[in-house]
Amino acid sequence: MDPDPWQDDVLSSGHPRILLNCHRQSGKSTVAGVAATHKATYFPKSLTILGSPSQRQSSEIFRKVMATYKSMGGTNEGHDDNNFAFDPLSEAITETALTLELENGSRIVSLPGKGDTVRGYSAVNLLIVDEASGVEDQFMTAVRPMLAVSAGAIMALSTPKGKRGWWYEAWANGKGWKKVKVTADQCSRITREFLEEELLNLGPRMYAQEYMGEFVELVDQVFTSESIAKAFDTEVAPLW
Ligand SMILES: Nc1ncnc2c1ncn2[C@@H]1O[C@H](COP(=O)(O)OP(=O)(O)O)[C@@H](O)[C@H]1O
Ligand SMILES: [Mg+2]
User: Fold this and answer.
1) Residue 185: is its pLDDT beyond 90?
2) What are the tens digits of pLDDT across the range 108-117?
3) What's this model's pTM, rounded to 2 decimal places?
4) How far is the CA of 182 from the centre of ligand 1 (A)?
5) Strand segments (E) across the chain
6) Which domain, by its residues, includes 222?
7) 5 lines ligand 1 (CB under 6 A)
């Protein structure tokens, strides 16, 4: 696979805080899968966590990790003679996590990014959050201290989902992030005809969200984000 220019940029930047606001089918999970495999392979004893709104979605990105890993010559059938001495010792499936453990002591763990499922792990070297706009703030609160200890990196990828939640806040107001936005008209694998059809099917609002990286009001939102923001008054001192 030849990476698209933005994928190349993300993989070679080495930036510790990356936000990817990229359209459906852009290849963001693919690039995150490559980043996870790279970390595990070249940084012995490292811990990479894959989080997303559900275990099903985290397993999806885990599959991309396995595909990259196998394409590099990795195998789960004993040792092979190439230079990659990182055959997985175990590929364990439990109720809440799916783990790839390599011979060099590195682990890649996929978890549902809910509540504090991540508690119990320590010193995370790379946190990948897929479909990040749907991941609970509480998960991020639980995982942040584990990144501090190990100077771990975060890569958070998503399409937008309204002006709310930690991922929106990071994208709109966060400092210190490398922010990468990719819209569908930039992708050579998607035709203009397909996009025109999607615009008709989804309507302009959902199309802008799914393919153009825009933070539109949610369909089921009673008040606009703007009117909610206006309802807050910074002049009033908190009671305690
Ligand atoms: N650079 C690339 N070259 C060719 N195919 C790619 C590339 N990046 C991604 N793909 C393919 O595009 C499809 C969508 O990729 P995926 O990572 O699932 O997108 P996303 O997570 O952004 O929805 C997959 O079939 C993937 O293999
Ligand atoms: Mg994806």
Assistant:
1) yes
2) 999 998 888 8
3) 0.86
4) 13
5) 17-22, 47-52, 88-93, 98-102, 107-112, 126-129, 153-158, 178-182
6) 5-230
7) no
The response to whether residue 30 sits with its C-beta less than 6 Å from ligand 1 reads yes
**Which of 19, 25, 61 has most ligand 1 atoms within 8 Å of CB, for mutation?**
25
Rounded Cα distance, 147 and 123, in Å: 6
**Other Cβ atoms closer than 10 A to 13:** 11
190 part of a folded domain: yes
Supply the angle between the helices 28-42 and 5-13 in degrees, to the nearest 10.
Answer: 30
Return the axis-axis angle of helices 55-71 and 28-42, rounded to nearest 10°.
Answer: 60
Number of independent structural domains in the chain: 1
Please state, rounded to an integer, the average pLDDT across all residues of the chain: 87
Judge whether 238 lies within some domain: no
Residue-level pLDDT at 172: 97
Name which residue sits closest to atom 9 of ligand 1, judged by CA: 27
